[in-house]
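Retro notes - structure team

What went well: the batch runner handled both jobs without manual restarts.
What didn't: labels got mixed up in the shared folder, which is why I'm recording both outputs here explicitly, each with its sequence directly above its tokens.

Job 1
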Amino acid sequence: MADRQFQNDPQTRRSLLLSAGGLAAVPFMAKAAAPAPVAEDIPKAEFVYEAIVTLGPAEEIGETPHGKRVRIPITGGTFKGPRISGTIFPEGMDWQLIRPDGMTELEAAYLMREADGTVIHIRNKGVAGKGYARTSAVFEVPNGPHAWLNEAVFAGTVGPVPEMDTPAVRIRMYKLV
């Protein structure tokens, strides 16, 4: 009789199904929680190079809905590290966005020439302000001895070059391993 009453009472059947469904979700939700990281899962940084990038005069483009846009020409420079070194082409650009919160979004694209002649295309995106300047880089390199740049994740720091008379930044790039 009770079974027949359950089958005929949609409200009771619905309540039971909802509570059963809620209980069934508890183990699923518990499995979805991320485990604590273990030492081998925490990325380490391997130094790749230090670049001194020279800059032309900044040109204010103007206010946009997202903040003030500034264009800074990349006029050249050098880079040196354990596996690569060379020069920076004088034709890149950094399109900065100074946000209303005072932080600056960095978005640079330029070319580097490795000492062996290989041309390396780099796109750097990052954020700077309040004593903080970090970037992440994506490289595009022809197949060959420097193709490893195509196959990894890179992060870097950006800072001033106080020992230079011309405007420049120091970029230290690291490969996450």
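Job 2
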Amino acid sequence: MKKISTDKAPAAIGPYSQGVELSNLVFTSGQIPINPAVGKIEAEGIEAQAEQSCKNVQAVLEAAGLTMDNVVKTTCLLADMSDFAAFNKVYEKYFVSKPARSCFAVKALPAGALVEIEAIASK
């Protein structure tokens, strides 16, 4: 198992890696909308936070030599399911290959985030 790390995505805030590679698969950790340049959430609203979370997933994948087109499955967590439609408008711009997906509303996300996205990609 190879750890994936990049300064173009937020540093892990716990005992985990930004991503790992195993055989021909890459697993990203959940990416919340932290701006890696400043280390905190700056984006307000679901659209802006979804945009930053997608960029963070993209950065981890690029560090592994992959693109968003390599993604085969995502898991998306929303703080409020009423944001589902607005989230989808941003999500579809990044995940144009339409990978398999699960999307859940959760009670709370780290750092007060409105969204978290994790991905599984294939080489």
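One thing worth noting from job 2: The two ends are 14 Å apart (CA to CA).
We'll revisit the folder naming next retro.
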